[in-house]
């Protein structure tokens, strides 16, 4: 592009439109993070469902892989920050949404683990004991409260950042993934816990893995065109 | 009464740079060079002119031992760009009516 060429008003307007279009459309996320988390949550959900469905154990809590996945995520984030040539306005907001989502997921896991024991202690300190009664045998025993359909809460949480990102970046696969997640949440309110785990796994695949693979394809296409 | 078109912006490469920067939060020099299909020397001169006018901020730093130049539009630059577009619209409107 030369600078000496005189511009007419019409040419100026066309140039502005062209450059804004280039800035808005000529860039795609690599999709690596979405593929990573889609795979991790997908595997964890499907394995935990299979363990209950077919009565076997892999010997450890498969959901622990979500903790291990933080390490490659940190590496990916550092590498992307180094390679980044442009920062879009919506990127800062989207990154903030996912950071808050990460904190919320750990807060919810903490809540699910802590609340039953704490509630039991509070009942005891007020002089109450929760009992559960078997209506067939008439036997009553001590009951430690638990969070009912806890997996549904995770589905609710998964849907929020996915749909928000999809809307903010106008990326249809994530909008669809986010909407599907709210549908899974509604279904999970009526299904036994093992199916909620299955829905968690499916949510990982439709929310992040599939949109991530689509992003990856667009990113590789972009790179090929820009070489 | 027509507003005069800002001579800083009414130049092909500087206008292209400003149009790119108005759409993003910040951009690397190499990204701007790729998108504007310009040479590094020419772009460097025009970026300097935009910086002197106070329309963009230029941050020079080292990233992994390599020099990196990042450009970002300033509030003054946004205002000037908006005024420029308004003036353009006035000219084009007058052209249609005349």
Number of strands of chain B: 3
- Separation, N- and C-terminal Cα atoms of chain B: 15 Å
Low-confidence stretches of chain A: none
Taking Cα atoms only, what radius of gyration of chain B do you get, to the nearest Å? 15 Å
- Main sheet strand line-up of chain A: 2-3
- Helix % of chain A is over 70%
Largest interface, with counts of residues having CB < 8 Å to the other chain, equals: A-B, 28 and 34 residues
**Segments of chain B where pLDDT lies below 50 for 5+ residues?**
none
List the helices and strands and how they pair.
The complex is a heterodimer of chains A (227) and B (98).
Chain A: H1 9-25, H2 32-53, H3 65-68, H4 70-83, E1 86-87, H5 89-125, E2 131-133, E3 140-142, H6 150-169, H7 172-188, H8 193-226
Antiparallel strand pairs in A: 2-3
Helix pairs in contact in A: 2-8, 5-6, 6-7, 6-8, 7-8
Chain B: H1 12-23, E1 26-28, H2 29-36, H3 40-52, E2 56-63, E3 66-73, H4 75-97
Short summary of the structure?
The complex is a heterodimer of chains A (227) and B (98). With 227 residues, chain A is mainly alpha-helical.
Overview of this protein structure:
Chain A is built from eight helices and three strands, in the order ααααβαββααα. Chain A is mostly helical and 227 residues long. Chain A has a two-stranded antiparallel ribbon with strand order 2-3. In chain A, a hairpin with a 6-residue loop joins strand 2 (131-133) and strand 3. Chain B has one domain: Winged helix-like DNA-binding domain superfamily/Winged helix DNA-binding domain (Arc Repressor Mutant, subunit A, Orthogonal Bundle), CATH 1.10.10.10. In chain B, strands 1-3-2 form a three-stranded antiparallel β-sheet. Chain B has helices spanning 12-23, 29-36, 40-52, 75-97, and strands at residues 26-28, 56-63, 66-73. Chain B is α+β, with helices and mostly antiparallel strands and 98 residues long. The longest helix of chain B has 23 residues, at 75-97. Strand 1 (86-87) of chain A pairs antiparallel with strand 1 (26-28) of chain B.
